[in-house]
Amino acid sequence: MDSDRTTDGLGYQFADNFMVTNEVKAQFDKDGFIILRNLLDGEELATLKSALEQDQGLANHNYGRDDGEGRQTKTTLWNYPGDDITGIIGRSEKVAGTMEKLLGGEVYHYHAKVIMKEPFTGGAHIWHQDYGYWYLNGNLFPDMGTVWIAVDRADRTNGCLKILPGSHQAGRIDHVKVGDQACADLERVNQLAKVCPLTYVQLDPGDALFFHCNLLHRSDQNSSPNRRWAFLVCYNRASNDPVYKHHHPNYTPLQKVSNAKIKECGVKTDTTGKHFFGGPKEELAMDILSQEK
Ligand SMILES: O=C(O)CCC(=O)C(=O)O
Ligand SMILES: [Fe+2]
């Protein structure tokens, strides 16, 4: 399955007066995503980038997942936003507030992560829906979504996201384990690709994709010389408090902040209270614990 389609030219230019109008919401409901270009401006992006590059928490807490294609993906993930720039961005009106309007109600921070696709070695994320994972964590409804923010330019040369627009309307698809990842039933993905044509999400640094948790997506390995890092913040509706205790938080009210706080925050690398996740090993330990109950 391949395609020449890209998201080039699609989306909205972010400005402080951006609003989720009925038209924007209708587009999100129909396609399962919207793109906001320049969601982070040059100064905000530069601060985020240097915080990520300096922050030892990111290096010390990152873990790999086999991609079933011979490489590993590299991720650092945490549960609570905290007060550093990653937390302030995740709590800001333009990120969290926009997601609330798209999902139709109050949201809380389910987790955030940095996906580090390094030059030449970056692993793939195989076809999945985020709700393929999150369903198993006791979230009864697919009232969840992710904001995917490009830290580096992401395009088809370095493993940008690939999506099947509108595929969220198919509901949750069966997933099977491949490597350390969950893979959506490929027969179903291929059938859906005939009616929801594969599209490469090409983004410049600071651009963001807001997407629904049932949107099918994947990203290829990075065999190019160009790094492809992305910062992702995932949200759950407050009304969708998970019914199982799992390795992501139950409803925890989000302390939203104004967009101006992003610039005030600066390169603060204090990661107190973020609760970094240990990766597949910790997942296994949690699964054993919940089976013992
Ligand atoms: O950034 C990527 O390439 C994909 C990440 C992803 O889909 C995920 O972490 O669920
Ligand atoms: Fe995903």
TrEMBL record:
Q: Sorted alphabetically, which Pfam families does this protein's record hold?
A: PhyH
The Swiss-Prot or TrEMBL record lists the needed cofactor(s) as:
Fe cation
Xref: PANTHER family? PHYTANOYL-COA DIOXYGENASE DOMAIN CONTAINING 1, PHYTANOYL-COA HYDROXYLASE
What name does this protein carry? Answer: Uncharacterized protein LOC106160522
Q: Which organism is it from?
A: Lingula anatina (Brachiopod)
What gene does this protein come from? LOC106160522
